[in-house]
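lol ok so funny story. i was supposed to be doing the assay writeup but got distracted and ended up predicting the structure for this chain instead. priorities right. anyway since i did it might as well share w the group, maybe its usefull for someone
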Amino acid sequence: MTYFGFLLGFLALPILILIVLTYRDLRLERTIPSNLQFLSPRLVIAALTVIAVIYTTPWDNYLVANMVWWYDPALVTGITLGWVPLEEYTFFVLQTIMTGLWLVFLARRISTSIPISAHKNLCRISAITVSLIWVAATILLLSGWEPGTYLALELIWAIPPIALQFVIGADILWHYRQLVGITLITSTLYLSAVDLIAIRSGTWTINPEMALGVLVGGVLPVEEVIFFFLTNALLVFGLVLALAKASSYRLPRLFGQLPSVESETCDIERPPKIQ
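and the output, tada:
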C-alpha cells in the first residue's frame, strides 16, 4: 500500500464524510453549544494545522534521520523535505483536520450546558504531573537504554505544550471531559487501527531496536498508540480551549484592556471586571 493510498483511503475519505455531515448539520441549523463559540472552529482548525506542521517537522525529521522509523522508498513519491517524505507532511495536515472536524461533529451532539465549576488546583497539579513525566522521559533518553528511545522522544516532544495547555485550562478541559474523552479515545483507536494496517503492509517501519517490543495485535508497537494519543491530545485540548468562552477570561484582552489582577488562573467562573 502506497503512503498516498493510505492517506486517501483512511484520512481523506473520513474528512470528506465529515464535511458532508457538517454541511447537513448546518442545513438543519444544528450548531455547537454557545459556550463553545468563543472562536470559529474553522479558524482554530486552520491555525492548529499550521502549528502541527511547524512543531512536528523538526522532531519527525530527527526520528527519520536517526532511524527511529523509516519508510519504503518504493511506496512514496520520492519528494522529500529534509529527511521526511511529502506524504508525512500531508499526514500532519489531514490528521489535524480529521480530528478537528470529528470533535466539532461530536460537540453538536454532546450537551455541555451544566454550570462550570472551578477547580483552582487542577491546573497546577496537572501541569506538575506531566512535567514530572517529562523529567522521567528525559532521564530515560539520557540513560542510553535503546529500547526506550522512541517512547522517551515522544514524551519529551509532546509534554511541554500539553503542560502549557493544562496551565491555561485543565479545569476547562475537565468540564468538557465527555467531549474531550470521546473524541480523544475514538480518534486514537481509529488511527492506531489504520496504522497497524500500514505497518503490516510495509508502508513504514518502526525500528524494533528503539522500541519496547510490546506489540498490539502482534504488529503495532505500543509507542504508536501512545503517539496517536499524544498528538490527538494536543489537538483536542487546543481546540476545546480555543472554542471555550471560559478561556477568554484567562487571556489578556486586546487593544489595551487587561483582566483584573486578582483573577486566579483557574477561576473560570469569574469574568474579568468591566470598567
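The radius of gyration is 20 Å. The beta strands are 69-71, 80-81, 84-85, 204-206, 215-216, 220-221.
back to the writeup now i swear
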